[in-house]
Amino acid sequence: MAAEAILGIIAQKAAELAAKKLIKESSRLSQVKEDLLWIETEMRRIQSYLEDAEAMQPKTKRVSNFIKDMWDLAYDVEDIIDTYFPKMRSSRSRLKGLLGRSNLTTARRFAKDVEGIKKRVDDITKARETFKIDESSRTREADTWDPRRTYPHVDEPNVVVGFDDLIKDLEQKVLDGDLHHRMVSIIGNAGLGKTTLARKVYNSVRQHFGCSAWICVSQQPNYKDLFRDVARQVGMEKEKMEQDVEANLFAFLNGKRYAIVIDDIWHTKAWDALKVGLPANSEDGSRIILTSQITDVGVHAGGVNSVLELQPLDPETNATTNCNASLKFRRVAIHGGDIGHYISLNPETSRVRAMLCFLRETQWNRSVTKNLLSNSKFLRVLRIDDDYIPRTSLLTEICNLRQLTYLKLSSESLASVELPYAISYLKSLLTLDLQKSCCVNLPDIIWNMKQLRHILLPERCSHLPIRPRVNCLNLSHPVEFSLTNLQTLYGLPSNLFKADWLHNLTNLRTLLVYYPTKDIMEVLILDVTPVSQKLETLRLHYFFEKLETNSVNLSRYENLHTDSSSMD
Question: Does the reported pTM lie above 0.85?
Answer without folding.
Answer: no
